[in-house]
Amino acid sequence: MDLESLNIFCIVAAELSITRAASRLGRVQSNVTTRIQQLEADVGVELFVRSGKRLSLSTAGERFLDYAKRLLALEEEARNVVTGGLDGGVLRMGCMESTAASRLPAVLAAYHARYPATRLEVSTGPSRQLLEQVRTGRLDCAFLALPPAAGDDASLADMGLVAEKAWLEELLLLAPTSEASADTPRAIRTRSLAAFAQGCSYRAIAEQLLGIPDSPGWQVQEMGSYHAMIACVAAGACVTVLPKSVLELAKVPTGLNTLPAGQVETCLLWRSGYKVPAFQNLQNQMKRV
């Protein structure tokens, strides 16, 4: 097993096609096929299920893909550390959708201006999933709102993680025009909440704020963007909780009711002992915010 074979495997897994993978890699198809077969012989299992010309990852292949990506990332990390960041390196960063929309653009633009050789890979997701991806090494760092179960230094230390405060977000409960008279979250009569999937810290806050765990009449509509949530609120179908910084960026119809929903810290999270130059440069950039 070598790094080149792992890279070829990851490309084939992404494309699920030897032809497309060979094109991306600049190799002949027979070479890609041989390298995959050699890798399967090395690990002792089939990594792909072959049905005619169609490929899909086997159960073992799905598990192996995560390890392959982590090994390749570790190689990048080692190279970045050994060279003192001269080659720029790669920084795999996760963040919440709200952070990506309202906070990160200015930070990343300034970072790129200072460190143009560093390749930034940014992905979004709910806080709990981001935390787990940092813990397991799939991400180098993440901007998130810490889940209650991991909200103290001792809990983070037990998981080998460190966090520092980045921003303080003011949360708002956004309700339809029909809720204009509601002056507290518990006075809301609409019984549908628009939110991200389980694992989102803001969703957990909203559920507690509205008393959803103690009220079986509530429904939660899972959505993938704040634009969709705001649109559904405007249509009178639901309520949602979101940062004020995000709401200020959106074109919100007049007449919607907004109520205070508390304040939450967005933290920068990383693994204890992670001192890659590309990440240290991000920490330095955050001090300038």
Attribute tags:
D-Maltodextrin-Binding Protein, domain 2, single chain, alpha/beta, Arc Repressor Mutant, subunit A, 289 residues, 3 domains, 12 helices, two-stranded antiparallel ribbon, transcription regulation, LysR substrate-binding domain-containing protein
From the 3D structure, determine the CATH topology of the largest domain. D-Maltodextrin-Binding Protein, domain 2
Secondary structure: helix percent: 40-55%
Number of domains: 3
- What is the count of helical runs? 12
Instruction: Tell the overall outline.
Output: globular
Identify low-pLDDT runs. Answer: none
Largest sheet: 8 strands, mixed
Q: Which H/E pattern describes the elements?
A: HHHEEHEHHEHEHEEHEHEHEH
What is the first-to-last residue Cα distance?
43 Å
Protein name: LysR substrate-binding domain-containing protein
Family: Belongs to the LysR transcriptional regulatory family.
Keywords: DNA-binding, Transcription, Transcription regulation
Pfam families: HTH_1 (PF00126), LysR_substrate (PF03466)
Descriptive notes:
By secondary structure, the protein is an alpha/beta fold. The protein has 3 domains: 75 residues, Arc Repressor Mutant, subunit A, CATH 1.10.10.10; 101 residues, D-Maltodextrin-Binding Protein, domain 2 (3-Layer(aba) Sandwich), CATH 3.40.190.10; 93 residues, Periplasmic binding protein-like II (D-Maltodextrin-Binding Protein, domain 2), CATH 3.40.190. Helices cover 44% and strands 23% of the residues. It is built from 12 helices and 10 strands. An 8-stranded mixed sheet has the order 4-3-5-10-6-9-7-8, with helices on both faces. Helix 9 links the parallel strand 7 and strand 8. Helix 1 crosses helix 2, helix 1 crosses helix 3 and helix 2 packs across helix 3. The protein is globular and about 70 Å long.
